[in-house]
Design a protein that fits this description.
Blueprint (H helix, E strand, L loop, with lengths): L15 E5 L32 H15 L3 E5 L9 H9 L6 E6 L4 H11 L3 E5 L5 H8 L5 H14 L2 E8 L8 H11 L2 E6 L17 H11 L2 E4 L9 E5 L5 E5 L12 E4 L4 E3 L8 E2 L1 H5 L4 H13 L5 H4 L4 H6 L5 H4 L2
Parallel strand pairs: 1-2, 1-10, 2-3, 3-4, 4-5, 5-6, 6-9
Antiparallel strand pairs: 7-8, 8-9, 10-11, 11-12
Helix pairs in contact: 1-2, 1-9, 2-3, 3-5
Bound molecules: S-adenosylmethionine (SAM) and iron/sulfur cluster (2 copies).
């Protein structure tokens, strides 16, 4: 298949594909899947509506063959809740042109799977952890899980040889006092910590601007204790701004999607577990790829569909958020647990 470099309406290329493999999770983080909404009767996707491993692999093959995608991130829900996940990684790893497979996880199942995942071809994990305080963490994750369960997962990933980053969502009035302890801890551990501003993804997490602890506030807190300097990005389109601690060889990052939006370089597509392609984290709905996949369309026909979707894209939600906050925040948006961040 001849490769085509896609560009959207704002001349942004398609470089990165994120694949959600399940909409289920063993946590109920208040900012993502609040327990009162995602309760025992919540209608999660039934198995026949999930893309099979064969269907996911076929799409990755098309994204790689037709558009030159090299990077894949597996996410969820909690991706390790999907049965036999290492088998999917192994299939993706065998696809020509894919040279970087990463996963975002809450980490508790890493103790069990890290070795198998590494062996299957996974290279990197981003582990989410919002506090080092047991009581606070148990409350945030909504399932009473203690910090140690995640730290054990991180250790298992390190032992297996996976590269590790840590993600911390900072919410004002909830865990902003954990910014400095987390920075100190992961500097000592030698893992890059990335602070993420609390975002208005979906419609269930009761977001408002007052709950956002901004990049500026995070930097100010850290500067009092651990001096740092900003360093340049690793590549164009990197979402985290990078900072290096002075006198050390370690760094941290900030993903400031709310206060300093980066839509102008956004080059990611997101595939939901049921096979819808989303061109923005804040989309109302996705583009159905499962129906044409199951209707036996050829690879060329599927590539044509994706081309049409990307070439029509003009999303820049975060840059527009402030223009009409009422309407932008309240309109229907896909839930984070559906497309995986
Ligand atoms: N369950 C996995 C995990 O937690 O890492 C993967 C899916 S989760 C949706 C992906 C990332 O999105 C996590 O790092 C999580 O903290 C982040 N996230 C979820 N809701 C968010 C929100 N409202 N604002 C900012 N980040 C959020
Ligand atoms: Fe689950 Fe991740 Fe969402 Fe937390 S952030 S509820 S771990 S999907
Ligand atoms: Fe990309 Fe949408 Fe986020 Fe802007 S708001 S950076 S277009 S995902």
């Amino acid at each position: 298949m001849e490769k085509k470099l896609l560009q959207d309406q704002l001349r942004r290329p398609l470089r990165d594909l994120r694949i959600s493999v399940t909409d289920r999770c063993n946590f109920r983080c208040s900012y993502c899947m609040p327990a009162e909404i995602f309760g025992p009767d919540f209608p999660f996707l039934p198995k026949d509506q999930l893309l099979s491993f064969e269907e996911i692999t076929r799409l990755v093959d098309i994204f790689s063959g037709a558009f030159g995608i090299k990077k894949i991130r597996i996410t969820g829900g909690e991706p390790l809740m999907r049965k036999d996940l290492p088998a999917l990684i192994e299939k993706i790893f065998q696809i020509d042109g894919i040279n970087d497979i990463a996963m975002t996880t809450n980490g508790v199942l890493l103790s069990k799977y890290a070795g198998q995942l590494k062996q299957a071809g996974l290279q990197r994990v981003s582990v989410s952890l919002d506090s080092l305080n047991d009581d606070l963490f148990a409350k945030i994750n909504g399932r009473g899980v203690k910090v140690d369960a995640v730290l054990k997962g991180i250790d298992a990933a390190a032992k297996a040889g996976l590269k590790i980053k840590i993600n911390m969502v900072v919410q004002k009035g909830v865990n902003e006092h954990e910014v400095v302890p987390m920075a100190q801890f992961f500097k000592d551990e030698g893992h890059i910590l990335r602070f993420i501003e609390f975002m208005d993804v979906g419609n269930t997490n009761k977001w408002n601007m007052e709950k956002v602890y901004s990049r500026r506030e995070i930097l100010e807190d850290i500067s009092h204790v651990l001096p740092f300097e900003q360093i340049s990005s690793n590549y164009s389109g990197e979402v985290a701004a990078r900072f290096r601690y002075l006198g050390a060889d370690s760094e941290f990052g900030i993903i400031s999607s709310v206060t300093e939006a980066f839509c102008s370089t956004c080059n990611r597509a997101r595939l939901s577990a049921e096979g819808k392609l989303y061109t923005c984290l804040f989309s109302g709905d996705g583009h159905d790829l499962r129906t044409p996949l199951r209707a036996n369309k050829s690879n060329d026909e599927l590539a044509q569909i994706v081309t049409g979707i990307w070439e029509n894209r003009h999303d820049r939600y975060s840059e527009m958020r402030d223009k009409n906050p009422e309407r932008n925040v309240s309109r229907k948006k896909v839930e984070m647990s559906h497309i995986g961040g």
